[in-house]
Specification:
6-stranded antiparallel β-sheet; Rossmann fold; single chain; 24 helices; about 15% strand; alpha+beta; elongated; 25 strands; Calcium-transporting ATPase, cytoplasmic transduction domain A
Length: about 625
């Protein structure tokens, strides 16, 4: 069965082996004439088939290196070296098999994501306080809000919220994190994660098509189908390499007076290293990136990343955590800090405001048990009201709270801080001060970029200038464009120099500028689908350090691809020069060229590994003096 599958997968190489074996048998039995005719007809048929492919490529605007192989086969037949011609055919068809093998090795981590795509979900139908036994349904039939059972060692089928008290999940194929991660009730669980040793229940928060894993699969499929620019760069080697090969072959013929010398030189000029090594290197680079939690949508992105010279960052959720933390409780007279925090956090359970989660986390982190109520109401864009044991609690904006508690006083805040105002039983009770702190790795990432060839680093944000300036100074960015609307971000990104420019963002409002930049990078760990769709690179781990990984992988892959090309070119030219002396017969040259192919392919697979980025050793430089960006738009309320 394996033999049959192999023959079906590589019919040309199978036919070449059969013809070569038959020719050798005929030669051994003294039927040289028959052997020559069979070899000539077979090679001629292969030449015609190759020429048809070349014409199709030219019509698509692609001029490649197949002309050298065709000339080599014609030359070897013309001088009677039909065994060498058969070996050239075998080498070219065998090159396809080598490329396929190397490609499977290179895309192994990409394929692992596709192969593990969830197919079945165990849905528990609820009837009041009772629930049925789990029913197996196709994952595409799972609806938002469905209760799902995930058994030990099973793949989480869709994004959801954990309902079981705790669980452990292997997210290595999604984020590159090798150790299992623990989740507690209420935390998000990503589709594609592998459950641990205990069964858990989750509540579906997205349909299958919108879940994190399916988005990753779509990105991977797009990455696999892409054609890297370096392959076109290899194509551009075609004309000079062909010219050099023909000059060397012609010179060898002229100096020796023997037309056989022309064929002996050309069999060493076959183009497999250029045709195979570059795409293998890029597949390996895409695979390595996926393994580290960075999905690149195409091979074109690798070349852009390798040459990036300017980087622009959004602020909230990119340079900062994107989740404000409570930094201070300022109770009014007659209230304690613990009382204000407990009642406010209990009310914020019923709010979807961006500050609500930080207040709840702060209370739970201090060991407080939040109160429950059936009497709660959120007033959109203003605040939330709730009643706990007869106490009426209001949390929200100062204007809203002061309408209920006239003595409310506005708090003095530092740049980067926000406040939630609290009223209890119609009296102003205090202020909760929150701040969205920079990510701990932001400064190190900025320092690494500066010391590794990035000439310009800017912040493009819609946030207020004092807050943006404060964060920029803390992480080491000295050019800030604040209070921007999405179209203004796009305009500024289009004018930034030097190019290429990489834009890093995470939210829906970043989608236009990500799409407009040379390289758009989305912090997609929190499921920002709009940003992920518009971006060229999606980071699956909630860490800015992956920016360094992406740039490092791009540069390493480019080095490997170009080095593989030059290894192939260099070895071929050196061997051709030797063949000009007659030291390498045509049959031997064809066999030696196979070793050149193998060498370049094995080198191209080095893109699967590579040096560490060195970010851990990067030293945070003192933040340069902050300068206001010239031409920043006026302040907007």
């Amino acid at each position: 069965m394996i033999l049959i599958r192999t023959i079906r997968r590589y019919p040309t190489i199978a036919a070449s082996l059969v013809v070569l074996a038959l020719v050798l048998v005929l030669l051994a039995t003294g039927s040289a004439t028959t052997a020559r005719w069979i070899a000539t007809i077979s090679v001629s048929a292969f030449i015609v088939w190759t020429l048809i492919g070349m014409v199709r490529d030219v019509l698509r605007g692609h001029v490649g290196l197949d002309i050298l192989a065709v000339v080599a086969m014609i030359a070897t037949l013309a001088v009677g070296e039909y065994l060498a011609a058969l070996i050239v055919v075998l080498m070219l068809s065998g090159g396809e098999a080598l490329e396929a093998f190397a490609g499977r090795r290179a895309r192994r981590d990409l394929a692992a994501l596709l192969d593990r795509s969830p197919r079945i979900a165990h849905v528990i139908r609820e009837h009041g306080t009772t629930a049925e036994e789990p029913q197996d349904v196709a994952v595409d039939e799972v609806a938002i809000g469905d209760l799902l059972l995930v058994r030990p060692s099973e793949i989480v089928p869709v994004d959801g919220v954990l309902l079981t008290a705790s669980g452990t999940f292997d997210e290595s194929s999604l984020t590159g994190e090798s150790l299992p991660v623990s989740r507690v009730a209420g935390e998000d669980v990503m589709s594609g994660a592998i459950n641990g040793t205990r069964a858990v229940r989750i509540r579906a928060t997205r349909r299958s098509a919108d879940s994190q894993y399916q988005q990753i699969v779509a990105l991977v499929q797009g990455a696999q189908d892409s054609r890297a620019p370096v392959v076109r760069l290899a194509d551009r080697f075609a004309i000079p390499f062909t010219a050099v090969a023909l000059v060397l072959a012609g010179t060898g013929w002229a100096l020796s007076g023997d037309p056989t010398r022309f064929a002996e030189v050309l069999v060493l000029a076959t183009p497999c290293p250029l045709l195979i090594a570059a795409p293998v290197a890029f597949l390996a680079g895409l695979s390595r990136a996926a393994k580290t939690g960075v999905i690149m949508k195409s091979g074109a992105v690798i070349e852009q990343l390798a040459h990036v010279r300017s980087v622009a960052f959004d602020k909230t959720g990119t340079l900062t955590e994107g989740r404000p933390d409570l930094v201070e409780v300022r109770p009014a007279d007659g209230f304690t800090a613990e009382e204000v925090l407990l009642l406010a956090a209990s009310a914020e359970q019923y709010s979807s405001h961006v500050l609500a989660d930080g207040i709840r986390r702060a209370a739970v982190g201090r060991g407080m048990e939040l109160l429950a109520t059936d009497d709660a109401n959120e007033v959109a864009t203003n605040g939330v009201e709730a009643v706990f044991g007869g106490r009426h609690v209001v949390v929200g904006k100062p204007a809203y709270v002061s309408s209920l508690a006239p003595e409310t006083t506005r708090a003095t805040l530092d740049p980067g801080q926000a406040a939630a105002y609290v009223a209890i039983d119609g009296r102003f009770a205090g202020v909760l001060v929150l701040a969205d702190a920079p990510r701990p790795e932001s400064g190190r990432v900025i320092a690494w970029l500066r010391t590794n060839g990035v000439q310009r680093i800017v912040m493009l944000t819609g946030d207020a200038r004092p807050t943006a300036s404060s964060v920029a100074a803390e992480v080491g960015i000295d050019e800030v464009h604040a209070e921007l609307l999405p179209p203004e971000k796009v305009h500024l990104a289009s004018e930034l120099r030097p190019r290429p420019i990489m834009m890093v963002g995470d939210g829906v409002n970043d989608a236009p500028v990500l799409a407009a930049s040379d390289i758009g990078v989305a912090m997609g760990a929190k499921g920002a689908t709009a940003a992920g769709d518009a971006a060229d690179v999606v980071i699956l781990v909630d860490s800015l350090e992956k920016i360094v990984d992406a740039v490092s992988i791009g540069r390493h892959t480019m080095r490997v691809a170009l080095t593989a090309i030059w290894i192939g070119v260099g070895l071929s030219i050196a061997l051709m020069i030797i063949a000009m002396t007659g030291a390498i017969p045509a049959v031997g040259g064809a066999l030696i060229q196979e070793l050149v192919d193998l060498t370049t392919i094995l080198y191209a697979l080095r893109a699967l590994g590579g040096p560490r980025s060195g970010l851990a050793e990067a030293v945070q430089r003192p933040a340069p003096r902050l300068t206001e960006a010239v031409g920043s738009p006026p302040h907007r309320p």
